């Protein structure tokens, strides 16, 4: 592997040069799930680079892909000492990767049909996430065959038992939520939503399609308002998030007005263009998004197969590029077998520069003003100065490539860890 570009760390700042402080919340609450536009959990497409791009362009919270409970229990947690990427590695690949930059906004989704296993899985990763979500809506066989995903809709006792266990066993700092689908009738759906709300969850995401409906079928968004009004009449303090057919932040307001939902979750549109969370999404994504996405993926050592899949899903409004331009670029990516094959597309700007851009966008977003009890929990946080890659560090192989795992843990900069301590390894204990 080639070495990363050598960069010079900034000189220490005296007190007069220190960045200003801003308020932040230590953890998510019900209010965190209101007035937002979220990135949905997605099979394969919800990779770390996509989540970071979504945050860069304005996503309020991001969901990771579904990970089956048993799969994560024996994973080995590794921290890249250069980039700060945290990988939960299986025998041959990384099952889940994250970065401390996204932790305040990251919801980890669990696939489970067992309360005890769900709790163990959540505790395995809770140091790196802000909340856990139970997948109760995925209709794919890999999720439903063992009673997980949409199969839980037919077993509300088990569904609620898992949520109750998660809420009881996890610290209050970790939010608990569920993602479900509409049931065949309104009454059935309202009864299920009420039961879930009474488990103490922070939020319920309702995908406005039934279990048997496919993505190409129009979402039954008009059914949601009655369900939300029912929850309000019961006086239950739980945020309701709409999922289905929202095309971006500009469209989210329409969806909220139509349904009365507290927030909106986006899947398909974000898979096609992660900048849909901006009021001015990128056009000509083949030239405005793909190169920067490839640079970011290379820097974060995202496995090429994952990167290639995500990039091939990108599409959007065409402004200046011709069909021929787009075809040529997609053809180059389709033939590529590694990052070196797309260097012409990536350009000269480094992935480290790209990551700094993401970091700058995320850290300078206006802080949400806490309300009520949240005000008491707000703490002062010093906005850290950007860090630089240490010189003469070898670029490690991605954890999923079969390369030997890094044995020595090195201290990470404060910008990454928030402290001077080495990240501990937890005791060993899918996607949608």
Automatic annotation (TrEMBL):
A matching Pfam family: Dus
GO-annotated molecular function: flavin adenine dinucleotide binding; tRNA dihydrouridine synthase activity
Region described as Disordered: 1-23, 366-409
Gene Ontology annotations for the cellular component aspect, listed alphabetically: cytoplasm
Key word Flavoprotein present: yes
InterPro entries: Aldolase_TIM (IPR013785), DUS-like_FMN-bd (IPR035587), tRNA-DUS-like (IPR052582), tRNA_hU_synthase_CS (IPR018517)
Biological process (GO), any one: mRNA processing
DUS-like FMN-binding domain: residues covered: 39-339
Comp. bias (Polar residues): 1-11
Keyword annotations: Flavoprotein, FMN, mRNA processing, Oxidoreductase, tRNA processing
Cofactor(s) named in the record: FMN
SUPFAM superfamilies hit by this protein: FMN-linked oxidoreductases (SSF51395)
Stretches with biased composition (Acidic residues): 374-383
Catalytic reaction(s) noted: a 5,6-dihydrouridine in mRNA + NADP(+) = a uridine in mRNA + NADPH + H(+); a 5,6-dihydrouridine in mRNA + NAD(+) = a uridine in mRNA + NADH + H(+)
PANTHER family for this protein: TRNA-DIHYDROURIDINE(20) SYNTHASE [NAD(P)+]-LIKE (PTHR45936:SF1)
Protein name: FMN-linked oxidoreductase
């Amino acid at each position: 592997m080639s070495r990363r570009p050598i960069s010079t760390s900034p000189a220490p700042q005296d007190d007069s040069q220190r960045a200003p402080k801003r308020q932040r919340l230590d953890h998510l609450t019900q209010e965190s799930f209101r007035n937002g536009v979220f990135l949905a959990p997605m099979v394969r497409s919800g990779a770390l680079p996509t989540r970071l791009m979504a945050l860069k362009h304005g996503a309020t919270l991001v969901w990771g892909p579904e990970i089956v409970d048993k799969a994560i229990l024996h994973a080995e947690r590794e921290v890249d000492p250069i980039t700060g990427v945290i990988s939960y590695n299986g025998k041959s690949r990384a099952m889940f990767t994250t970065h401390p930059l996204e932790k305040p906004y990251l919801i980890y989704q669990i696939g489970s049909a067992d309360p005890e296993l769900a709790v163990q899985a959540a505790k395995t990763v809770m140091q790196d996430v802000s909340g856990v979500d139970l997948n109760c809506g995925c209709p794919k066989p890999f999720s439903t065959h063992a009673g997980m995903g949409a199969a839980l809709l037919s077993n509300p006792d088990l569904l609620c038992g898992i949520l109750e266990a998660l809420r009881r066993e996890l610290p209050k700092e970790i939010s608990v939520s569920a993602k479900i689908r509409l049931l065949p009738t309104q009454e059935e759906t309202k009864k299920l939503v009420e039961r879930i709300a009474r488990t103490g969850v922070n939020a319920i995401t309702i995908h406005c399609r039934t279990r048997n409906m496919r993505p190409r079928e129009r979402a039954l968004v008009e059914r949601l308002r009655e369900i939300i009004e029912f929850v309000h009449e019961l006086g239950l303090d739980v945020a309701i998030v709409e999922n289905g057919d929202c095309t971006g932040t500009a469209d989210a307001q329409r969806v909220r007005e139509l349904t009365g939902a507290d927030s909106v979750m986006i899947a398909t549109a974000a898979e096609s263009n992660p900048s849909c969370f901006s009021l001015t999404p990128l056009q000509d994504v083949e030239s405005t998004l793909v190169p920067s996405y490839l640079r970011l993926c290379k820097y974060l050592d995202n496995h090429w197969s994952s990167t290639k899949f995500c990039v091939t899903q990108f599409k959007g409004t065409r402004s200046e590029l011709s069909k021929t331009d787009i075809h040529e670029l997609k053809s180059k990516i389709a033939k590529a077998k590694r990052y070196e094959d797309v260097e012409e597309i990536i350009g000269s700007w480094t992935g480290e520069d790209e990551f700094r851009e993401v970091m700058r966008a995320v850290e300078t977003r206006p802080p949400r003003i806490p309300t009520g009890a949240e005000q008491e929990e707000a703490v002062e946080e010093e906005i850290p100065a950007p860090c630089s890659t240490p010189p003469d560090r070898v670029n490690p192989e991605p954890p999923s490539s079969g390369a030997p795992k890094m044995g020595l843990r090195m201290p990470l900069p404060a910008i990454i860890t928030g402290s001077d301590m080495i990240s501990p390894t937890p005791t060993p204990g899918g996607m949608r």
